[in-house]
Amino acid sequence: MHIKTLDNQVSISDQISVDDLTEIAKQGVEILICNRPDGESDHQETFASLEEAAKSLSIEMLHIPFRNGELNDTHRSQFIASLKSGKKVHAYCRTGNRSTMLWASCLQQLGTADTELLEAAQSAGFEVSDVLGIATEPNKEQTDPLGRDYHEVVIVGAGSGGIAVASSLLKRKPDLRIAIVDASQEHFYQPGWTMVGGGVFRAEDTRRSTQKLMPRQVTWIQKPAAVFHPQEQKLELEDGSCIHYGQLIVSPGLKLDWTAIEGLSESLGSNGVTSNYRYDLAPYTWQLVQALKRGKAVFTQPPMPIKCAGAPQKALYLSADHWFRQGSLKDISIDFFNAGGALFGVETYVPALMSYIEKYNAQLRFNHTLTKVDGEKQRAWFKTKNEAGEEQSVETDFDMLHVCPPQIAPDFIRSSPLADDSGWLDVDQHTLQHKKYPNVWGLGDVINTPNAKTMAAARKQAPVVAENVCNVIDGQAPTTGYDGYGSCPLTVERGKIVLAEFGYGGKLLPSFPSWVNNGTTATKRAWFLKATLLPSIYWHGMLKGREWMVAPEKLSRLD
After folding, report:
1. Which SUPFAM superfamilies match (predicted)?
2. Which pLDDT tens digit goes with each residue over 493-502?
3. Looking at the 3D structure of the chain, how many domains does it have?
4. How far is CA 353 from CA 338, 366, 367, in A?
5. Candidate list 34, 93, 106, 308, residue with the active-site label
6. What is the residue range of 38's domain?
7. Residues 159 and 243 occupy one common structural domain
8. Which of 93, 242, 470, 488 is catalytic?
9. 309 in any annotated domain
10. 104, 212, 265, 464: most buried by Cβ count inside 10 Å?
């Protein structure tokens, strides 16, 4: 805990613990305010545990939680009421930044001069010009290339998009000073998890050390990103430290929202409840598939957007194919509960997929969204609407339940000034440049472009971002564009795939000849591509900056 004084009544700090309360009491604090939602990070003391301990020290505790970018009048009115009590107040959040913004916003409302608030906040190490509505010029010292915390390019995320775009940048500008911000020590080839769940790949073959994949010229900052300050060209990390940038590339992926479905988190990994969307659970999927000889298998798909929209039905196809080959399919009923209204978003591929739905005698249940799971009782509940348009709940039993969880942007993206109204990174769909901040870029699952969130999309986006960032660094305008390309190798049976390749608006964008990619039938050649070639292309091509078949396209050629 690091206590900083803002004025005679208010002090702030980073996250506190129960052990810190004695020191806070010694400072004469009478009201202690928490500005963090519970569960925001690991090892965070809950409000309830601190409140209980504070009572013994005669400290009143208030919970006024909000995320960055979500400060509103309700928060202000609660804080102002504490100020008007005349009691000494201490507020805390993860770093002290949010508490300082709340204090400044309230004091401005009460009539304190902006210059006084700016000076007090800056003395404590925080910038409140945004919350006060004061336009400021970027600090030259912060953007000085000689500064120790400055990088020409900062990339948030060491996943597929982050490492690929770093490698593509270095291919164009080998001396570029790049930092990648990500605390994860492991890197995963996530498209392989469908194959793990189908008994084709081993889980361990989809995992590598992040350190071994990091380009040698890149500085790896092994801390989580927390808060964006785009006007100051500054990124705040979870520990409160900051780095400055010339260009910022945001590619942290998305968040699998397991907790959005009641009972799901507690049920996963036992009682037949599984998901190929997690590394540790994909092998359990294959165990369940092999063990099931008769009964009911249920597969689910949540509302869009999700990563790899075909993955939920891929799990169905590979499972059903195993039961078909084993002769047990006749004793197993299969239900596919899809929150959407169609089997696949690009109509061209639906007939080929429907032929397999019919082969496996799977029942399609459209417009059904999973809401609750009871693993012990092996029951699942879905919300849907009846013919009168009234919402109703549908309940089903299962022996095996494969769940695709709802998916949202990471919390620190949704609460940031970089997000659109739905919480996704707000970029131009062709240049991938942020719509408001021209030195901010995005790629991968986190962006709000209307394309399928697939590995192939990130592979096509990385050279576009790299080319455009280099152009801007050289004082030019972006020249290349992304056409929405994505691909989905639909594993309809072991040894055959329907390879879907398409761009914005469902436009077909085949990159392979028809004898490999025939949208009307499943082919063995497409399976060879998925099972043998694509993993190698990923590890040794995409992540190394080798832009095979994804050379960036000129903006002028895009529709």
Report:
1. FAD/NAD(P)-binding domain (SSF51905)
2. 999 999 999 9
3. 3
4. 15, 15, 18
5. 308
6. 4-132
7. yes
8. 488
9. yes
10. 464
